[in-house]
Amino acid sequence: MPQPKYKLIMLKLSGEALAGPEGFGINAQKALDIAQRVKEVRDMGIQVGIVIGAGNLWRGRIGLEMGMDQATADYMGMLGTVMNALALMDAMEKLNVETRVQSAIEMRAVAEPYIRRRAIRHLEKGRVVIFGGGTGNPFFSTDTAAALRATEIGADVLIKATKVDGMYDSDPNNNHHAKKFDKISYIEALNLRQSVMDSTAVSLCMENKLPILILNFWDEFALQKAIKGEPVGTLVSN
After folding, report:
1. For the chain, which ranges sit under pLDDT 70?
2. Across-strand partners of 64?
3. Would you say residue 138 lies in a domain?
4. How many structural domains comprise the chain?
5. How many Cβ atoms sit within 10 Å of the Cβ of residue 182?
6. Is 7 helix (H, G, I), strand (E, B) or coil?
7. What is the pLDDT of residues 174-212, one digit of tens each?
8. Cβ distance 11 to 46 under 8 Å?
9. Of 83, 23, 48, 43, which Cα lies nearest the Cα of 159?
10. What is the CA radius of gyration of the chain?
11. CB-side neighbour CA atoms (13 Å) of 133
12. pLDDT tens digits, residue range 112-123?
């Protein structure tokens, strides 16, 4: 069997990945589906860190539309990411995958506080680590949290799991002639101003030379192909 291309990955999931058909809340079957894909990769000997959003529970812009202070709205979103992290941990452990949740916002009754060296040690022991609470600061997205944590733990790649099979020059849902990129530079990705990943996260990855791989997580074999180094999705790098 060929050696995998990556040894340590950071997987960035949207909160909507946990939602059911109605697009809201936490669906137990979706959580198990995600857990199964992660287990398959972990069983290949890959160390896996995960950051998950909270769009299935709360979006900061909803609070802003209600006249809420942005920092307060963002903190509510951070709490939502911890809820999703716990749900995913439960699904992972149903599949006998040892998992730890670390939160940037301290809440010791339900999660470990984020400690970089402890997270690295968990990964070395084969545990999946789910990072909740974003960066612990308002005004930063979970994309940026994923880029930050991936850099801190020394990940080989940041994998952005989406519903599309890569990055395009325009929205493929609105333009059937949109061109898909197999590879693209950080600067080109920033200039496209696509909503696949926010610019702060891309800039942080560029500064730290951390490749970003954008793929369709719901393609049954996409994640495994990526780990093996087979062409899949869009690779953003130098």
Report:
1. 1-2
2. none
3. yes
4. 1
5. 11
6. coil
7. 888 888 999 999 999 999 877 788 999 999 999 999 999
8. no
9. 48
10. 17
11. 18
12. 999 999 999 999
